[in-house]
Amino acid sequence: MDSGRRCDDRGFSLLETVVAFSLLAIVILAVTSAVGTGLRLVREAKTGEIATNIAEGELERVRDRASFPYQNIGVTGGVVPGVLVAEQTRTVRGVEFTIVTDVEYVEDTTGIGGDNPDASAKLLSVSVYPTADGMENAVRMRSILTPQESTTPATVVVRVADSSDNSVATGVGIRLHRNGFDSRSGLTDTVGRLTFAGLEGTEATGVPYTIELDDVAWKTEEPAGVTASPSSLDKITKELHVYQLLTLELDVFDSTTGTQLPDPYWVALHMEPAGRFSVRQGLWSSTSASEKNASLWTISAFPNGTDVVGNMSYNFSVWAAGYRPATVSFLAPTSYPSGILQTTHAHSVGLVPAVTEALTVRVFDTSSPPAGFQALVRVQDAATGTDVLRYALTGSAGTVSLHLEPGVYQVTAIGVTSQTKTVTLTQGTPVTEDFQVAR
Asked: CB count, 10 Å around CB of 144?
């Protein structure tokens, strides 16, 4: 009996205690590992969800054609050029994500990629991953994008303004087209506007519309027209600036008799805006009725392409055998009456009879052999420096015939460079003088 009581009071042995603690440690480790794995899986699920949301958001963002027309969908510097960024980062809930975007050409029927810009579609790829984890855990999404057909017509409104005072220009003919196709035309209304509705959005073709003047009564500051690139749902406004031509009407007469100057005589019209020269010259005679006295000579289409607008100073020189040359200055008006084809600026010029002699000026370039070319010629009185002929214009062969009173003149030929010579004219002795300047 005493021996049995001693057995019950003995307690646990050391071995039993070690085994018990070992089992407890195993259980705790198992539980801790399970909790850690669970937490890691929860974190990965959350970052994966965030990455998925970012990728889906990027796809939806690019699919918005109002912000990204088809022709703009591509990567800056990529095989398919465009406005998208190849790689960027974004931080969400304290985690930094890397977003990689790529675009390639594909056939929408097969989805096979390539670098053929004539392919029927584009493949947009977006990869998103936590920056710290690397590409291994990236969420990848793709979408095939095709040129969007315009389901809602686009509208282009053209406003036409008079360049002279920026007022509205009514009744002006305007044409809209796309590389010569889909052509439409019309006249501006009472507020200077013309609306082209029901247009196909340009994102389907990438070809913009051209808006140009279609009216002989006006000229435009935008001779090549302006372009408009509406997408579907768009209503955009473009502006053209127009002006009407000035017409010079000359009545040239003998100041002694008051009668019309006998044929032939020459007129050179010129202007000098911003140090540039523009000259138009014609032989005026009764056989060329379109450029005679009461007829009209439109001041436009100068050799350097400059058309005349208002508030600019012009000169014209007139010369003829048996008369003293004359140079007259005038200021073009600042505005032109709306609806009138051309505004006429009339001048009467009386030439004084005089004894004259012929001076033939020949202008050559610096090539070898020298070749004649069209150049300016200025004649000044050698003693006073005053203009006798402000400017004359040689023909394409480089020659012009002038009629001047006997005397001493400074004659200047002007090309890219200029050359001046002193020329003496005496009665009964025609003179030919050669000049050589760079063209």
From this structure: 15
